[in-house]
């Protein structure tokens, strides 16, 4: 071989090697990007990465930027078979039916309804910090103290302590809401608030906001459930304080750390009102929050209603109104997410932003449910631990057991959202959350549970025999879920590698 042909060959080989290296590197990057996107695509919002909010203890951030315009809420009656299921690469899940026969009666006997009057507006106390929902400014010389106290509850405790327990708020409702008239007689409700090591001022501001802004005739009692708190002031001091409140209020205690679900069940057992209203321990109810919720339930006892959850800033305690055009959804990891309300649901409501909004799932921290209906559908899954997934579980339960789940845009309740959970999860957060999610998948998702197992890293199949408890099965069967007259369809987006799978499901439907 001549020297020149040798160099030509060498150059050729080098060129093809370089090509190979370049190709290989690009391939690695493509795979890396793909993994990154599928893992984190739920967390990308308008303001960048929002994953930090996912550790939130009780509910998700209500104004988290929707990713998908899942334009797929359908009533069976309205299904335009051609149009309703085509379009994007989502798979549709039957959420359940609107009306079932049998079980509890749809309406209340009139003896159990009470005549009510509007609660007077809480007037502004001039000169107090945070009045009218304004942010609290901490003086510069107190910044160190503020940082120190922040750690106790993962919100600005110093600011909270400066604000009146009776703080005034602006009327955040849509104008159309203020003109609405509700039934003159409504069922009574008991408020159930679960807490664990809550701060004194946030807990009592929640209680006072309920007392101040609910029609007194409709407020049966306030039940505080202490899930094994370790703080002294939440002991006898709290009991003595609530004993003097103008509305019957009492404290129940779980003997050991039981988690949100079991603590709520303990509270529910003691409810003497017609309707149970669950609230978180760091909320503020706004003017006219309660009557629109009860007014929906009085029309159909199987309607479960949530207020719009506004944001109380964890930094300044400013009251910030949340969007009224998001609804609750979920992804295949069974994480709750807020999404933009699809135009189909807007049309069903005649584009009236004050009309009740049917939502596939709820955030879970705040909602009202008829007490008998709550037990008819089997209440909560007692096998779930501490926190996580119970909101999806309850949402699926409602839709699959003849109920309707709605967000009532005329009812607003503020909630302190935190970046980090100040609580302990025995055995680790991931383990508990995955355990709970698998229970949701096994009990309520039937064959779609495979999507959950495929999409959620670290999930482990649960012993489905153990999970398909008699209670859950009977509840589902007695409600005859597949003989639906009204169906809500919800599309969950899938990553490209699931495209074929989702198509076959859609055809099967
Ligand atoms: C809140 O206001 C009521 C009167 O509306 C009053 O009786 C009560 O003492 C106030 N509570 C606090 C903690 O200031
Ligand atoms: C999807 O279906 C097409 C056509 O049936 C097939 O060629 C392709 O390999 C499938 N993709 C996957 C990921 O299974």
Structure description:
The chain is an alpha/beta fold. The protein has a single domain, classed as Spore Coat Polysaccharide Biosynthesis Protein SpsA, Chain A, CATH 3.90.550.10. It is built from 17 helices and 18 strands. The chain has helices at residues 3-40, 81-84, 143-153, 157-162, 175-178, 200-213, 236-243, 259-269, 291-299, 343-348, 371-376, 390-400, 429-444, 449-455, 464-467, 470-478, 499-508, and strands at residues 44-45, 48-49, 90-97, 113-115, 185-187, 189-195, 219-226, 249-253, 275-279, 283-285, 303-312, 319-320, 326-330, 336-340, 357-358, 367-370, 404-416, 487-493. It has a 5-stranded mixed sheet, with helices on both faces. Strands 10, 11, 12, 15 and 17 form a 5-stranded mixed sheet that branches. A hairpin with a 5-residue loop joins β13 and β14. α13 runs antiparallel to α14 (449-455).
CATH class: Alpha Beta
Number of domains: 1
CATH superfamily: Spore Coat Polysaccharide Biosynthesis Protein SpsA, Chain A
Ligands bound to this protein structure: 2-acetamido-2-deoxy-beta-D-glucopyranose
Query: What global shape is seen?
Result: globular
For the largest beta-sheet, the strand count, sense and barrel status come to: 5 strands, mixed
Total beta strands: 18
Radius of gyration: 26 Å
Mean pLDDT: 78
Protein name: Blast:Polypeptide N-acetylgalactosaminyltransferase 5
Transmembrane segments: 21-41
Domain Glycosyltransferase 2-like: 190-374
Subcellular location: Golgi apparatus membrane
């Amino acid at each position: 071989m001549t020297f020149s042909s040798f160099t030509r060959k060498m150059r050729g080989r080098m060129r093809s090697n370089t090509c190979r290296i370049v190709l290989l590197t690009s391939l690695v990057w493509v795979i890396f990007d793909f993994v990154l996107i599928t893992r984190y695509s739920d967390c990308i919002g308008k303001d960048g990465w929002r994953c930090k909010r996912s550790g939130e203890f009780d509910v998700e951030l209500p104004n988290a930027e929707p990713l998908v315009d899942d334009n797929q809420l359908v009533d069976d009656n309205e299904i335009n078979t051609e149009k309703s299921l085509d379009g994007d690469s989502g798979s549709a899940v039957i959420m359940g039916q609107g009306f079932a026969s049998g079980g509890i009666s749809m309406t209340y006997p009139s003896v159990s309804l009470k005549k009510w009057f509007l609660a007077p507006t809480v007037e502004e106390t001039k000169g107090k910090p945070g009045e009218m929902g304004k942010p609290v400014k901490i003086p510069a010389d107190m910044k160190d103290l503020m940082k120190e106290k922040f750690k106790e509850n993962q919100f600005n405790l110093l600011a909270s302590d400066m604000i009146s327990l009776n703080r005034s708020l602006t009327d955040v409702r849509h104008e159309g809401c203020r003109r609405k008239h509700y039934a003159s007689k409504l069922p009574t409700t008991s408020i159930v608030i679960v807490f664990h090591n809550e701060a004194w001022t946030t807990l009592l501001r929640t209680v006072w906001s309920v007392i101040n802004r609910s029609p007194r005739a409709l407020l049966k009692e306030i039940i505080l459930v202490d899930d094994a708190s370790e703080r002294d002031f939440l002991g006898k001091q709290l009991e003595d304080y609530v004993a003097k409140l103008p509305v019957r209020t009492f404290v129940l205690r779980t003997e050991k750390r039981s988690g949100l679900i079991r603590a709520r069940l303990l509270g529910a057992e003691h409810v003497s009102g017609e309707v149970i209203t669950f609230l978180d321990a760091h909320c503020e109810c706004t003017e006219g929050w309660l009557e629109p919720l009860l007014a929906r339930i009085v029309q159909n006892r199987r309607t479960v209603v949530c207020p719009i959850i506004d944001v109380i800033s964890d930094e300044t305690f400013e009251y910030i109104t949340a969007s009224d055009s998001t609804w609750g959804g979920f992804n295949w990891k069974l994480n709750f997410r807020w999404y933009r309300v699809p135009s189909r649901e807007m049309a069903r409501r005649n584009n009236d932003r004050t009309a009740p909004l049917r939502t596939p799932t709820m955030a879970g921290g705040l909602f009202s449910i008829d007490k008998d209906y709550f037990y008819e559908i089997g209440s909560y899954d007692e096998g779930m631990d501490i926190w996580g997934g119970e909101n999806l579980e309850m949402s699926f339960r409602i839709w699959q057991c003849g109920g309707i789940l709605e967000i009532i845009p005329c009812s607003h309740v503020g909630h302190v959202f935190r970046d980090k959970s100040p609580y302990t999860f025995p055995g680790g957060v991931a383990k508990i959350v995955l355990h709970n999610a698998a229970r949701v998948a096994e009990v309520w998702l039937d064959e779609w549970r495979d999507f959950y197992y495929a999409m959620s890293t670290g999930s482990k199949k649960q012993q489905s025999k153990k999970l398909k408890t008699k209670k859950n099965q009977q509840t589902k069967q007695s409600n005859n879920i597949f003989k639906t007259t009204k169906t809500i369809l919800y599309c969950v987006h899938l990553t490209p590698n699931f495209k074929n799978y989702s198509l076959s499901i859609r055809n099967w439907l």
